[in-house]
């Protein structure tokens, strides 16, 4: 069969699709042979190897900067990797792993790499690529994307909006499905707006949305979108932004 883009029936997010254990927990997929860190100054011995994410594309990345310490922490999630010995377009493994990468900017060194531990949630399919993500406080928000089912020779468009607690230390994170607003899509962009003025209620009443995810564009099979949506973190609902002058 050829490459297909399929929309799962709402509100199910490809729930019947099982990728043979490629979910976030209970699988070693998405892990590459660990690199070794540079030798510590004066030790003459290389530092212990680090766990490290496998090569991938179509993943999301969000970051935070600790200017005082000169450190940058980046969180990557999901993506896809090609299967070996295959030239077919849809022969990709869709990943569901998250990684914290901590960098020392001044020394140009990777200081630490640790995996985001996720709880096993059979009702949620976390595997995705070509999605978008933002981080708000200690939560990661994932929107849409694609999932490749190799057995069915089908690429699913993910219709979900998920919140993933960022547990640096502690129990495995439990993802939560939030209300859906925009049409399902992939290859879209999502940024975090510090402040957005909302007059969607009409009249002169105005609200100020703080740390609001904003989605623009993307594709949905044969459709290419140019719409803008803002997520109200307090009301937990999506607001479509008018593009009229």
User: How many structural domains does the protein architecture include?
Assistant: 1
Query: Runs with pLDDT <50, length 5+?
Result: 7-28, 31-45
* Estimated radius of gyration: 20 Å
- Quick one: overall form? globular
Strand fraction: 35-45%
Main sheet: strand order:
4-5-8-9
Helices, by number, come to 0
How would you state the average pLDDT, rounded?
77
Helix fraction bin: under 10%
The major β-sheet equals: 4 strands, antiparallel
SS-based structural class?
mainly beta
Describe this structure in words.
The chain is mainly beta. It has strands spanning 5-6, 31-32, 52-53, 60-66, 71-77, 80-82, 92-94, 98-104, 109-116, 132-136, 139-143, 146-149, 154-157, 161-165, 176-177, 189-198, 207-220, 223-232, 237-241. It has a 4-stranded antiparallel β-sheet with strand order 4-5-8-9, with no helix packed on it. It has a 4-stranded antiparallel β-sheet with strand order 10-11-14-15, with no helix packed on it. It has a 4-stranded antiparallel β-sheet with strand order 16-17-18-19, with no helix packed on it. Strand 8 and strand 9 (109-116) form a beta hairpin. The protein is globular, with a radius of gyration of 20 Å. The model is unreliable at 7-28 and 31-45 (pLDDT under 50).
Summary keywords:
single chain, mainly beta, 19 strands, four-stranded antiparallel sheet, 245 residues, globular
Brief overview:
This protein has one domain (5-35, 47-241). It is built from no helices and 19 strands.
